[in-house]
Predict the structure of 2Fe-2S iron-sulfur cluster protein.
Amino acid sequence: MAARLLPFGDDRARPHQPSPIEITVDGVVAAGVAGQSIAGVLLASGRLDWRRTSSAGAPRGLFCGIGVCFDCIVTVNGDRDVRACMRRAADGDEVLSQHDTLPEVTA
Ligand code: FES
């Protein structure tokens, strides 16, 4: 398992043997355990950002972690604007990072 995930047995909040899952993130397989959010799987895999801002292209990832800021949005199985911190990862999920350019303003 990845370094950010506590080993089973050391984690008192998870008394049962975890079930492994795999998701793909921009085509790369990331391993997780059942019950983790998509953001949790991403962080555990060592990825700290997975979205770019529209205006400056600045990297974004987890900020609030509670579904308030929308910094963590990704596309999951074709659905855009899914908050990675609020979506439980499911085995086989296909996650794509998001970057949308600013819309053109017409007068
Ligand atoms: S990190 Fe703020 S909504 Fe997900």
Remarks:
- The first strand starts at residue 20 and ends at 25.
- The two ends are 53 Å apart (CA to CA).
